TrEMBL record:
One of its GO terms (cellular component) is Golgi apparatus. It comes from the Eukaryota. Belongs to the dymeclin family. InterPro entries: Dymeclin. This is Dymeclin.
């Protein structure tokens, strides 16, 4: 199963009508337009923001620059266009009808963002036909930008900038994916999800979309299980020792689903969390015991919600001496039951992907399923789940027989 980011709303980013480049010089980036006219003011917010990467503390100027940069990125001017349209009727009063059209003008700052390249990359950008790129070209030090974003990701503004870069610039996305210290970005984002009750909904959505984009890459899913954060001091439920970044990410995503079910009731948020888990599942490596238990508990929790809704449905059908039918249910209840059916199926697909593609590398997942195998039994003959549960019970039968022996 693969979930794509296509269709997600995205506002374009920065650009300029300048054909320019910048040169690295002690954290200062000078830009020049055609004809060598200075235009360093265009990226001066980036200049001040990135130059704070080596600072022990954040600078107010960098904070202000980040806000200015986002204003430049997302500003759209509403333009009103007046056109003359021929009136196709027999009236002699007028031959023309004045019509007003409104639209949002292009943000030229965005155009250049799509073409931003790493200052360390000496290759000339070419299009799919092999022609050299001739649009506005900007060079930035991706390494400094990566490190600076890691410092600021506790703020919603920095998350918005990271989302914009990851979604809008394929070069920066590729750079992020090949970094060996992904915890620089992931740890503050996971902490944001952990403290979801203290953040804004927009902040949570952007973090999840960033993780969804990253989780589409197989190398990302493999590398996060090789990184071992020394500690997770902000996680209060229990001590997490020798827990990989991948296991921590799964724990936090499941916790976010639980929080959503109890507080927010946001289907979009839940779907994104499950989509990320589904993208990660085939590449899971040595998932921790706690993460494995939480994964099985996720199915158990969703199954309780599903069972309660199904019982309400049966109660409604018994009203009127059995003459009422399922379609007499309130539309909201029928829709919610269908949603939970889909959620349960996704969780089963996640477990199946681990058992199919990564079983030898995940003994703790097998143990967690064996320990709680009774939670799957009520759904064994369900028409939406039977083929998925057949595989799970095949694995259970194999290991149960070995245990009995």
């Amino acid at each position: 199963m693969r979930f794509s980011r296509s269709g997600l709303w995205f506002n374009p980013l920065f650009g300029s009508n300048l054909n320019c480049y910048d040169m690295l010089n002690t954290a200062s980036y000078d830009m020049f337009s055609e004809g060598n006219q200075p235009a360093s003011f265009v990226l001066s917010p980036f200049n001040f923001f990135i130059s704070s990467s080596g600072e022990a503390t954040r600078r107010p100027l960098a904070d202000s620059s980040l806000h200015v940069l986002l204003i430049l990125i997302y500003y759209r001017k509403c333009v009103m266009e007046e056109t003359l349209k021929d009136k196709s009727d027999d009236s002699a009063t007028s031959d023309f009808l004045l019509k007003e059209n409104t639209y949002f003008s292009e943000n030229s700052y965005y155009k250049a963002l799509e073409n931003v390249r790493d200052i360390e990359c000496k290759l000339i950008a070419v299009d799919i036909e092999g022609n050299a790129h001739c649009g506005p070209l900007v060079r930035l030090p991706f390494a400094s930008l990566f490190d600076t974003l890691g410092m600021y990701l506790a703020d919603e503004t920095a998350i918005l900038l990271l989302y914009s870069l990851v979604h809008g610039n394929s070069d920066f996305l590729e750079y992020v994916l090949v970094r060996t210290d992904l915890d620089t970005l992931l740890m503050p984002m996971l902490e944001t999800l952990y403290n979801a009750s203290k953040g804004t909904s927009n902040q949570i959505y952007m973090v999840l979309i960033i993780l969804l984009i990253l989780s589409q890459d197989s190398s990302f899913n493999a590398s996060i299980h090789k990184l071992m954060p020394p500690s997770v001091p902000w996680y209060q439920e229990r001590l997490l020792h020798q827990t990989s970044l991948g296991s921590l990410m799964i724990i936090i995503l499941i916790r976010t689903v639980n929080y959503n079910l109890s507080k927010l009731q946001d289907i979009y948020l839940r779907t994104n969390c499950l989509a990320i888990l589904a993208n990660m599942a085939p590449h899971v490596h040595r998932l921790s015991a706690y993460a494995s238990q939480r994964l099985v508990s996720l199915f158990d929790m969703l199954s309780h919600k599903y069972t309660k809704l199904a019982e309400l449905k049966n109660d409604k059908m018994r009203i009127g001496n059995g003459e009422s039918r399922g379609d007499s249910l309130p539309e909201e209840m029928s829709t919610e039951l269908h949603i939970y059916t889909d959620f349960l199926r996704i969780v089963l697909e996640i477990l199946n992907a681990i058992l199919t593609y990564a079983l030898p590398r995940n003994p703790e997942v097998v143990y967690a399923i064996m320990h709680r195998q009774e939670v799957f039994q009520p759904f064994r003959n369900h028409p939406r789940f039977n083929e998925l549960l057949e595989n799970i019970f095949t694995v259970l039968d194999f290991f149960n027989s070995r245990m009995d022996a």
